[in-house]
Design a protein that fits this description.
With 213 residues, the protein is of the alpha/beta class. The protein contains nine helices and eight strands. Helix 1 packs parallel to helix 2.
Length: 213
């Protein structure tokens, strides 16, 4: 099972990143995606090793953004691949069999391609405008989520991403999205992890109640 809440690490330096990952873990994060662009591979490898130490201590899962070889080196729980990163099929051949692979999608067609490549989850976004990503693709919104989920008919978890706040959770889950990846809102206030988790768990309790009736 892939956790319903993914914290995408924030911070402009390795130190900031590690401080934020530590705070996320102590605040109850079940999964952290380590994401820091524009640093050397050597620096990123050290950061990934340090992040692995922190997350292992708290039994928090760690995904590495983009660098699938580093994900294998540090024995992270998996890798998240953006649209311009490596192909999931190539990464799958390289990684350990137990490591998971997630992919970024912006359209129904993107999702179909990722499903053909047998990713473990799809991160679909952006939900709304966000400053954490350069060259942002078109915003999807609630209507876009509903249309794509309805057309896909897949059991693969679809994770919403992009400028999501605690106030959006109920409406997003109603579209059929199964989880959320959040950076800005959590980095601003790590107490929101508890709120996100409560809202996400409330939705799964509702689903179970409905299923057993």
């Amino acid at each position: 099972m892939i956790p319903k809440l993914h914290y995408i690490s924030g911070g402009n330096s390795p130190k900031e990143q590690l401080d934020n990952i530590q705070k996320a873990c102590t605040s109850g994060a079940e999964l952290v995606q380590l994401r820091l662009k524009n640093v050397s591979e050597k620096k990123f490898l050290k950061l990934a090793n340090d992040a692995r130490e922190i997350t292992a201590h708290y039994q928090t899962r760690l995904l590495i953004n983009d660098h699938y070889k580093i994900a294998k080196d540090v024995k992270a729980d998996g890798v998240h691949l953006g649209k311009k990163d490596s192909c999931p099929t190539i990464a799958r051949r390289y990684l350990y069999t137990w490591q998971i692979i997630g992919g970024t999608a912006n359209t129904f067609q993107d999702c179909e391609i990722l499903l053909e490549k047998e990713v473990d989850y799809i991160s679909l976004g952006p939900f709304r405008f966000t400053t954490t990503k350069d060259n942002l693709p078109p915003v999807i919104g609630l209507n876009g989520y509903s249309a794509i989920i309805d057309a896909l008919h897949t059991e693969t978890p679809i994770i919403g991403v992009g400028g999501i706040t605690t106030e959006d959770v109920t409406a997003i889950l109603a579209t059929g999205i199964s989880g959320l990846a959040v950076s800005e809102e959590i980095t601003r206030d790590f107490n929101t992890i508890r709120i996100f988790n409560q809202l996400l768990k409330a939705s799964s309790t509702e689903e179970q109640r409905y299923t057993f009736e």
